[in-house]
Amino acid sequence: MKTADHIDRAASTADGLAGRLSERRRARGLTQGQVAVRLGVSRQAVSKWEMGGIT
Predict the structure, then answer these.
(1) Is the model more confident about 38 or about 15?
(2) Are 13 and 2 in contact (CB under 8 A)?
(3) Which residues contact 15 (CB under 8 A, 6 or more apart)?
(4) What confidence tens digit (pLDDT) does each residue in 19-44 have?
(5) In contact, 32 and 25? CB cutoff 8 Å
(6) What angle (nearest 5°) sits at the alpha carbon of residue 33, between those of residues 51 and 40?
(7) Phi-psi category of residue 2: left, alpha or beta, with phi > 0 → left and psi -120 to 50 → alpha
(8) Rounded to two decimals, what is the model's pTM?
(9) How far is CA 9 from CA 4, 14, 15, 24, in A?
(10) CB-based burial of residue 49 (10 Å sphere; 0-12 exposed, 13-18 middle, 19+ buried)?
């Protein structure tokens, strides 16, 4: 059974990852579209990841 603490940590980890993805992409001067092409996914997927909607 998942506890509230477990869920809070999972959300915090997702938020942290989303921020790091966005920060590193921007530091390299890449658009979401360029990252998407390199990874073979849609630009919308990259946007969703950066917004914390990692699935």
Answers:
(1) 38
(2) no
(3) 52
(4) 999 999 999 999 999 999 999 999 99
(5) yes
(6) 95
(7) beta
(8) 0.68
(9) 9, 9, 10, 22
(10) buried
